[in-house]
Design goal:
The structure holds 2 protein chains of 2 kinds. By secondary structure, chain A is mainly alpha-helical. Helices cover 69% and strands 1% of the residues of chain A. Chain A is globular, with a radius of gyration of 28 Å. The termini of chain A are far apart. Classes of the chains: A mainly alpha, B alpha+beta.
Chain lengths: 583, 374
């Protein structure tokens, strides 16, 4: 090698490090990207009109008097000085607290039995656990009234006391919130790493110590989530306290009383905001717990497989049998009660209670309204929720506008989880019923019910869709672009087929909830659009408990049928499109 | 020697030279928020060439690869493909095929459907498409697996499907983003030779990103060594190995021992930790210049072979590693540490076990010296 080469080696030709950079690049967005951006723009418009503006109007109304003049905090001052209203806050909080303390340990034990023991019939127990989700919350309340109400068969067990009040509310809420807690906890307990248990055993830890140091910490965020979800569900539920609460006032019934009874929309808005606070707090806590939960299980984890052990399995089996028996019993009593001629004096069976036109002017029409409402909401909602989630995950992210759009739409899509149905319903009346609102034509139509239900149940579907889409390889769209296949083609040929199970899940979730919800729609239905769940409340108010139970049973029958259809369809779809999952 | 090695590098066939420029990257920069991922990168890639981007993680090699197809477009500069400027174009309007580390195969489609995914539209009538899919599947040796789903294939087979899918629409440029890093060692070696053979057969210009420099040296016509968002050196594997352009390249590519030294008054002499060594590369440097010196282990001479070399010194064997074809010996003199490779026979002949003193020398042209960072 010559010296010249060596000299060059010591001072190699380098690009000028601090010299001028190349000219800025003007990036041309592809048609795909522009379409997705436009789609996100539409989603933003939709969520603003259907969620942000109504909630904004609700906030403003809390600071106005009946004539629309700004009164500052006067409404809030009236609120805190009304002993009856303040008492409801306390009533709501303590019934929710007691329910949480009862449900979470019970659901934990039940889920523990399903995931960490060797009891038989796990599939059946799992199915029974989901039963209350399919029923309107009114159903357990009606069943409890059959058993312990003024004409209850088991009223003697209360020693002259009365089911109408906090006891009844808590009992019905335990039934109603049990599946939510059990689902969260069985997910938390299902994902265990067997190697942690092996390590603990090798280190000679006893069973109690392993439970305390491995099992509980692994499930602690699940426990937080479950407690938060149960607490919020109880505070924001309207159906149960309405039917079984008697004179015992809670926040949810206060909103209804202020708005429907007293026509005081401003005070209704104030109570609505008070009701919103615990829900938002719970939402924040939940997000925190979820953020903490990620990363506890790595891809290399070895799944835990329980070994039979009678001293653990037999008591857990007993517990599961008792719990499942109680769940089935409650539903059974409601069904039986709906078939009885005159409870409890004439116990002959009859279908008379199902002739709804005898009890309520809407008759069977309410049921078909509900079916129509739920089906429409499920179809429209699933399409919107999944497409928007896809745009959010795979749409343009480079420009500042794109990032701002994504952030805002993402926030609005998760916000409905923190908004109780009653508050959203109230916000809808205030917004759509406003004389200056051109969208007021929707008021009282099926359209507003669909829109409201769609927004009310948006978030869970959104999260399901996001999770499913995130499991897909992030480079699918890049591969398509390199092969010059437009993104919607890949969406249709790859994304949707792979996500079909999640899409069906979203559809059923929206359908079931739109069928059973009372809280949001009770403010919004019109003379021809009364849903069945509201008819249940009305018939119960009119003293027609049997007819109310009959209608609640019809709702349960419809949701259960849809759920069964989903399971069957899932199996068919699985055979047709998911063959690739099998090795 | 150099010509012989170059011939070796392309598998016995002489390089078809000269080739025309196909991809021209001029002053390309990329900024993510406040982080500068690429700074003023310029590079020309010739038609039919196989170029690898190597560098430590975070050096910008993947960023540069993704800027070329516009998956993460560059913020400044110009990229030309053929005669066309493509810097800001959307990916679908460029001409490339890409293979990702994860393969990104569509799990719900069979091998044949995956390969045919991009063969749609008027240019690909059914008969032509089927013929092309068959051809490619045969080319990558998966003829009997055409109707299987990706989940039913091994990692190496999945990678071949991804390669066939990328090549199906006859792209002018093939991009490989760490294509082999998810595979185990034996499959990797086999597949990289297959990719190279296929690339040469089709003559498609190819860019590969890899963190495995041995892989890059084994298959590439040229390497682009990158560090902290800049190109450190562009050259054939042999150039980069033998004549690194910077201390970074010398340290990153291949194995070497490094030590500090200072230029002495006598021309071509340096002093390191009190040991005077002749180094051709230090000729013409100012007396007193501080240096960083690199020595490849195979350039270190031991025992009788070192006897004639000026600057040979006695060093103690402190560690011995048996690697099969060679032994790696760690040698120490006061404040100087070197690694040397020797055949097991030589090690035995020298009796080089830890504790033994050996005569050690390095030919003066094999010391790679760089001005120390000031």
């Amino acid at each position: 090698m010559s010296d010249a080469v060596l000299g060059e080696r010591l001072s190699p030709p380098r690009p000028n490090r601090d010299g001028p950079q190349g000219a800025p690049v003007r990036i041309t967005a592809s048609l795909d990207q522009r379409l997705m951006q436009a789609g996100l723009g539409l989603a933003l418009g939709f969520l603003v009109v259907a969620l942000a503006l109504p909630m904004g109007v609700l906030l403003v109304r809390a600071f106005e008097d009946a004539n629309g003049a700004f009164v500052g905090l006067a409404n809030f001052a009236t609120y805190v000085t009304s002993p009856a209203l303040i008492r409801s806050v306390w009533n709501s909080v303590w019934t929710a607290g007691v329910t949480t303390l009862l449900v979470v340990p019970l659901a934990f034990a039940y889920s523990y039995a399903l995931t960490r023991s060797c009891i038989p019939f796990k599939g059946a127990f799992r199915a029974v656990m989901l039963l209350p989700i399919l029923a309107p919350s009114l159903l357990p309340a009606l069943a409890l009234i059959y058993l312990f109400g003024n004409q209850g068969m088991l009223r003697w067990m209360l020693f002259g006391d009365n089911i109408y009040g906090p006891g009844g509310i808590i009992a019905a809420q335990v039934f109603y919130t049990f599946p939510s807690a059990a689902i969260i906890l069985s997910v938390a307990l299902a994902t265990a790493d067997a190697r942690l248990y092996e390590a603990a055993e090798v280190l000679k830890a006893g069973r109690a110590r392993i439970f305390r140091t491995v099992t509980l910490p692994g499930a602690r965020f699940g426990l937080v989530s479950a407690a938060v979800v149960v607490f919020t569900q109880v505070i924001t539920d309207f159906g149960i306290p309405k039917v079984i609460g008697g004179q015992f006032q809670v926040l949810a019934t206060d909103v209804y009383k202020q708005v429907v009874g007293l026509q005081d929309f401003n005070m209704g808005a104030v109570v609505g905001i008070v009701l919103l606070l615990p829900a938002i707090g719970a939402f924040a806590l939940q997000r925190w717990a979820e953020g903490k939960r990620s990363g506890t299980l790595t891809g290399r984890a070895v799944p835990y497989v329980p070994r039979p052990r009678a001293r653990r399995d037999v008591p857990l089996l007993m517990l599961c049998l008792l719990t499942a028996g109680a769940l089935i019993g409650i539903v059974g009593v409601a069904i039986w009660g709906s078939l009885i001629r005159f409870w409890p004096y004439n116990l002959t069976l009859t279908l008379d209670n199902y002739e709804f036109s005898r009890f309520d002017s809407s008759g069977w029409g309410a049921f078909s309204t509900s079916l129509e409402l739920a089906t429409l909401t499920a179809f429209i909602g699933t399409a919107i929720v999944f497409t928007v989630a896809y745009f959010l995950e795979r749409g343009p992210q480079a420009s500042r506008i794109a990032r701002l759009l994504r952030g805002t739409v993402g926030l609005l899509a998760t916000a409905p989880l923190a908004i109780p149905g009653l508050v959203l319903g109230l916000a809808y009346i205030l917004f759509f019923n406003h004389p200056a609102n051109p969208l007021g034509v929707l008021y009282g139509t099926l359209g507003i019910l669909v829109l409201n239900s769609l927004v009310h149940f948006y978030t869970v579907g959104h999260l399901t869709a996001t999770t499913a889409i995130r499991q897909l390889d992030p480079e699918f769209e890049a591969v398509s672009a390199s092969l010059r296949v437009p993104v919607w083609s890949t969406f249709g040929r790859v994304t949707v087929p792979i996500c079909l199970p999640a899409i069906m899940e979203i559809w059923v979730y929206i359908f079931v909830n739109a069928m059973t919800t009372v809280s949001a729609v009770i403010f919004l239905y019109g003379p021809d659009t009364k849903p069945a769940s509201v008819a249940v409340v009305h018939m119960d108010e009119a003293g027609q408990a049997s007819a109310a139970a009959a209608m609640a049973c019809m709702l349960l029958a419809a949701t259960a049928a849809v759920k069964l259809a989903q399971l069957l369809l899932a199996r068919l779809v699985d055979r047709a499109t998911q063959g690739w999952r099998r090795r | 020697m150099s010509a012989a090695l170059e011939t070796l590098a392309v598998g016995g066939k002489p390089l078809p030279t000269p080739r025309s420029a196909y991809l021209d990257i001029v002053s390309v920069g990329k900024v993510f928020g406040t982080f500068t991922a690429l700074k003023d990168v310029s590079l020309t890639i010739n038609e039919g060439e196989f170029v690898s981007f190597v560098g430590p993680s975070g050096c910008g090699k993947t960023t540069l690869l993704r800027a070329i197809p516009g998956l993460d477009p560059a913020t400044t500069g110009v990229i030309r493909q053929g005669a066309r400027e493509i810097t800001g174009l959307p990916p679908a309007e460029r001409d490339f095929g890409i293979v990702f580390q994860s393969y990104a195969l569509f799990p719900n489609m069979s091998v044949a459907e995956n390969v045919g995914y991009g063969l749609r539209g008027p240019a690909w009538p059914r008969a032509r498409m089927t013929a092309r899919v068959d051809e490619l599947i045969r080319l990558v040796g998966l003829a009997e697996h055409a109707h299987k789903y990706p989940a039913q294939l091994s990692g190496g087979q999945q990678q071949r499907v991804a390669l066939a899918r990328a090549l199906a629409p006859e792209p002018g440029l093939l991009l490989l983003d760490e294509p082999l890093s998810a595979l185990d060692a034996i499959v990797r070696l086999h597949l990289r030779q297959e990719i190279r053979a296929l690339q040469r057969r089709l003559g498609v210009t190819t860019i590969m990103v890899t963190h495995d420099q041995e892989e890059a040296m084994g298959v590439s016509d040229r390497l682009v060594v990158m560090s902290r968002g800049r190109v450190e050196q562009v050259g054939t594997p042999e150039e980069v190995y033998r004549r690194p352009a910077s201390a970074f390249v010398a340290g990153f590519v291949g194995r070497s021992s490094a030590f500090d030294a200072v230029v002495e008054a006598a021309p071509g002499m340096i002093v390191a930790a009190g040991h005077h060594l002749p180094a051709d590369a230090a000729r013409g440097l100012l007396y007193g210049t501080e240096l960083r010196v690199f020595v490849r282990p195979e350039d270190v001479r031991l025992g009788p072979a070192a006897a004639g070399l000026p600057g040979a010194l006695q060093m103690e064997v402190v560690h011995l590693e048996f690697l099969g074809a060679a032994c790696r010996i760690t040698l120490e003199a006061p404040r100087l540490r070197l690694e040397a490779d020797a055949s097991p026979d030589l090690v035995q002949a020298l009796g080089a076990v830890p504790g033994v003193m050996l005569l050690v020398g390095v030919p003066s042209e094999r010391l790679m010296v760089f001005k120390a960072d000031v």
